[in-house]
What we know:
Blueprint: H1 6-26, H2 33-47, E1 52-57, H3 61-72, E2 78-85, H4 95-100, E3 108-110, E4 114-120, E5 123-128, E6 130-137, E7 140-147, E8 155-161, H5 165-181, E9 189-194, E10 200-204, H6 219-230, H7 236-241, E11 248-253, H8 260-270, E12 275-280, H9 287-296, E13 300-305, H10 323-333, E14 340-346, H11 349-358, E15 365-368, H12 374-384, E16 390-391, H13 394-403, H14 409-426, E17 433-434, H15 435-446, H16 451-457
Parallel strand pairs: 9-12, 11-14, 11-15, 12-13, 13-14, 16-17
Antiparallel strand pairs: 1-8, 2-3, 2-6, 4-5, 6-7, 7-8, 9-10
Magnesium ion binds at residues 260-261, 345.
Pfam family, one: AAA
Organism: Geodermatophilus arenarius
Domain AAA+ ATPase: 246-373
Amino acid sequence: MAGASEDEVREFAAGLRSLLDWLQLSGPAAGNEVVALVQGTLGPAGLGQSVVARELPAFEHVNLQTALDAWSAAPGRSVEVRGVVLPPHYVGIDLQQLMTGEALPPVRLSAPAVVDLPNGPGSTLACLRLALLLVTDDDGRYVLLVQEAGEHRPTMSVEVAGLPVQRAQAVLAELDRLRRELNVYRGRLVEVTPTPSGQVALTFLDPPDLTRDDVVLPAAVLDRVERHALGVAGHRAGLRAAGQHLKRGLLLYGPPGTGKTHTVRYLLGRMGDYTRLLLTGRSLGVVGSVTELARELQPAVVVLEDVDLVAADRSFGPGGSPVLFDLLDAMDGAAPDADLLFVLTTNRADLLEPALAARPGRVDVAVQVDLPDAAARRRLLLLYGRAVPLRLTDDDVTRAVDRSEGVTASFLKELLRRAVLEALHEQDPVVAVTAGHLDRALDDLLDSTQQVTRTLLGVGAEGAVTDGDGAWPGPAPVQYGGGYRPFRAR
Ligand SMILES: Nc1ncnc2c1ncn2[C@@H]1O[C@H](COP(=O)(O)OP(=O)(O)OP(=O)(O)O)[C@@H](O)[C@H]1O
Ligand SMILES: [Mg+2]
């Protein structure tokens, strides 16, 4: 303060001090109803205890609420729930602030706000967003603060105040136990997607309703898939008793449109008592936390679709190992005696081979899903023609089967759709789909001038990757069958 006399400085300091005192008394904390409630509930003894906090992933919100509901209803315990309102733009609050009134944002009491979260494929549960639970039970009187995750708070939290640390830990452990026991994801089909903040979100899906007859694969192939995926269920105890691991990995590989995803969907429909976690594309990066969840909710199956998508991706941070390696490591890290099935699919087995060779033991059965042979093409025509009024002779079907040599299963599904469209040009509604319609649809789909359409529909996985001028370049050449061995013998 250049130019100010000593008296003036003293006077200024005194004024500043009284301003600060006044702010302290009449600031947001003074007389705050939330602070008063917490302090009144805990009393001096409770206020002297440490706050014990547990952070949980956002997808645990619905499980925490399920656990809290059960916990609150236990005999001898009464719980009063009070909502807390925090103005927008505040990241969050903690119980310590509410006990002391220090660094307090302008909070107030309200009816508890809830978010309605799915707790099953067709049901929801009202879950507390930011609330105080005032508890009275054998431990005395104490307070819980539940706080949801938010844009700038990637995890949610539950805090306990008013109890000695060990007792507070026991409360949290009991809630953990109930979350596990009552976990709403157990035995469900759940899709895993990454959130912008790098966490995972879980979405319930309806289980597919596919029968064995809906999957057109050589019997030996389907048998092998089923045995590996489903065979363990009846022999869990026997395998464990004989010291054998239950964890297993199944790889389905083959050209696009041949039924890898279709087969997985069929398996998922059959594995009704398994927790089924589905990961594709960008979600594959979060496989670590998903494996942990799967182990907790076993028996479980983790589906990793199109794993080639991450074969070349490198994770962030030093070292930057390929995401695929992280994925394989996560598979390996899971407890071997857990009933865990990993199903991987790819149409680029060539990209996977080096990673799998470098990290052996993750995949114990690799099944090639190939282009349909003549018998399979016939079955596919009839399968996807089931709902169509087909008027075809055996010879008509044979001709279509011969003409469609080298196409994928999904091509035949599309062929039927096109044949119906051809028929619709003449009759609406369709009375009969005849050989003429089928021929015209085939002419159109196989038209050599429509290279892009042909490639997209999967005509000849090898033939489609042509080198003619101006031809659709297609994906990088992949070899299937014909002596190609995706895995080295170990
Ligand atoms: N073997 C099959 N049996 C019956 N239908 C099939 C078969 N293969 C494919 N389909 C039909 O074609 C659709 C597409 O096939 P699917 O998605 O399973 O191919 P994919 O092998 O997973 O291909 P991609 O490598 O591109 O993922 C399926 O939804 C199903 O309707
Ligand atoms: Mg697929």
